[in-house]
Design a protein that fits this description.
By secondary structure, the protein is of the alpha+beta class. It has 6 helices and 15 strands.
Length: 328
């Protein structure tokens, strides 16, 4: 990532070509030499661990069912991305872009609505630290979006007007050590991300797996000072499937607790985009889908227990060797 800020266009373009090759052929890559301080990453992991160590009643104070945007605390088995076991063997906390929060410096006047995020009242430091991480990651990923534009043979600033207040999210995840390590005990079941792209810091315990083109699960172990970056569904849509949104999962066979920090980046909620000009087939018309609508359409499926879903059953997204369309 060193040269994404280079003053030399050819050096920036060279990084873009490597990213483009990875996104067309794999859908995942490692981002090394990034600008996020290791001290900030360590502090964010530490404060996440302290949150998950709180009594359950303190965490449930910010239960995602209390929030229309489905943000906040996700208890164990809240999500079920594969249909074989009780649910995903993890707990999490999600915060995201919120025009009402002064720490996010929203560039426009927020509409008349409730705050999007909610926070545990017993742990006020949590909000401060996650916003520090969000701010740094948003700066990095907006720059990374310009490199994605180059990779797609678009002007470098193509996505700038669509990412003034982008949909972003920090998800803290805690996977307990699994006592029985079989195919039914999935830390986070097979899925693809709805985002433009996602950056994941895995701490030090390996568990992330990627489904390759041959239907084989391939390990994506953590590397020091590195993010795993994957293409999301929205970018796959915009590129007419030229960039691959790859199915992945978490299977914790380490015998240890595992923590991870996914960061999600997408366009502004109000941005209206269709298939990109450099990715279109001649003579074909393409639907324009607002980014917020695309996100909500898919995200709610994974939060099937949320009250707004009115009791709809869990989505069966993946069985062994078979992928099912999320929106089906």
């Amino acid at each position: 990532m060193t040269n994404i800020w280079s003053e030399n266009f050819e050096e920036r373009k060279a990084v873009a070509e490597k990213i483009g090759d990875a996104c067309r052929n794999v859908g995942f890559f490692y981002a090394d030499n990034h600008p996020i301080p290791q001290s900030l990453i360590d502090e964010t992991f530490d404060i996440a661990k302290k949150f998950f160590a709180l009594p359950l009643e303190d965490k449930m104070d910010a239960h995602l069912h209390k929030n229309k945007a489905a943000r906040g605390y996700e208890p164990m088995f809240e999500t079920k991305m594969e249909g074989r076991g009780k649910g995903d063997l993890k707990e999490g906390f999600l915060m995201a872009e919120d025009p009402y929060d002064p720490l996010q410096n929203c560039p426009f006047t927020a509409p008349a609505d409730a705050p999007y995020n909610q926070w545990p009242s017993a742990y006020p430091e949590f909000r401060i630290q996650l916003h520090k991480y969000l701010t740094q990651m948003k700066h990095f990923t907006r720059k990374l979006a310009s490199i994605f534009a180059l990779a797609l043979d678009l002007p470098e600033d193509f996505f700038a007007e669509y990412t003034q207040f982008p949909m972003t999210g920090v998800r803290c995840l805690h996977f307990p050590a699994q006592e029985i390590q079989d195919g039914k005990d999935i830390g986070l079941g097979a899925h693809s991300d709805v985002s433009f792209f996602t950056l994941v810091h895995q701490h030090h315990v390996a568990a992330l797996q990627v489904l390759n083109a041959n239907g084989i699960w391939v390990d994506a172990p953590p590397r020091p000072n590195s993010f795993v970056v994957n293409v999301g569904d929205y970018l796959e849509f915009l590129t007419n499937k030229k960039f691959k949104s790859t199915v992945h999962r978490v299977l914790n066979r380490s015998g240890e607790e595992r923590y991870s920090l996914p960061f999600f980046f997408s366009a502004d909620r109000s941005a209206e985009l269709a298939v990109l000009p450099t990715c279109r087939d001649a003579g074909k018309k393409y639907e324009t889908i607002p980014a917020g609508e695309f996100f909500s359409r898919v995200f709610r499926i994974s939060r099937w227990q949320h009250p707004d879903n009115e009791g709809k059953p869990a989505a069966q997204i993946l069985t062994e060797g078979t992928t099912v369309e999320v929106g089906a």
